[in-house]
Amino acid sequence: MGNRVNEAAHLKVSDVFYRDGGLKEVFIIRGATTKTDQYRPGFILAKQHREALIAWRDQRVAEGGFTSSDGSYGGLDPDSDLILGRRGKTWRRLAFNDKKYKTSRGEVVSTKVCGSLENLVRELLKGAGLNYGSSHSGRRTLATWLDRKGYDLELIQLILGHRNPDMTLEYIDPDLPRIKAAFQNIWAGVKPSA
């Protein structure tokens, strides 16, 4: 999907599900929940993502996790958080803590982060054998994969929600064979002068 973990943690059921229970393909990530404070589109297009969200919805409904009184939104309360935690049989909202960081301009900014969800993502990555993964490394991998498939920088920037294409470039790992091929092709017809 390309979202930051904290963007996902702030999603509401009504952000991604229609009233009739259908799952949206494109939704709006509210500006107040983004790092850039600007709304942007989010995407749920991959079959696996869609199936996972439907299964999550069905599990919450079956277990009574913040359900709707009238069956709308696939049976979930539209104002409830999309992602919930659970202790025993009790469903609960995720907790957020303040985190301060410096912007590229040197300004100190505070944001709310969901440490428990970040830790969960890290544990899932470890379980998959990716011991050095983080809650943010998936965004970097996505940017690199999209670049390798030939998608343009503007599209990758849109998916990641970056204001500046320079930031998007920082997410894309260099591909030395591709760089080498580019230089060989550009200089293919040039002969050294005598």
Explain this structure to me?
- The chain has about 190 residues and is an alpha+beta fold.
- It has two domains: about 5-85 and about 90-135, no CATH class; about 135-175.
- It contains eight helices and six strands, in the order ααββαββββααααα.
- The strands form three sheets. The chain has a two-stranded antiparallel ribbon with strand order 1-2. A two-stranded antiparallel ribbon has the order 3-4. The chain has a two-stranded antiparallel ribbon with strand order 5-6.
- Strand 5 (about 95-100) and strand 6 form a beta hairpin.
- Helix 5 runs antiparallel to helix 6 (about 155-160) and helix 6 crosses helix 7.
- The chain is elongated and about 85 Å long.
- The chain starts with a helix and ends in an 8-residue tail after the last helix.
- The relative contact order is 0.12.
Q: Which percent range describes the beta-strand content?
A: 5-15%
Distance between the termini: 55 Å
| Multimer state | single chain
Question: Share of helix among residues?
Answer: 25-40%
The major sheet is characterized as: 2 strands, antiparallel
The residue ranges in which pLDDT falls below 50 over 5 or more consecutive positions are none
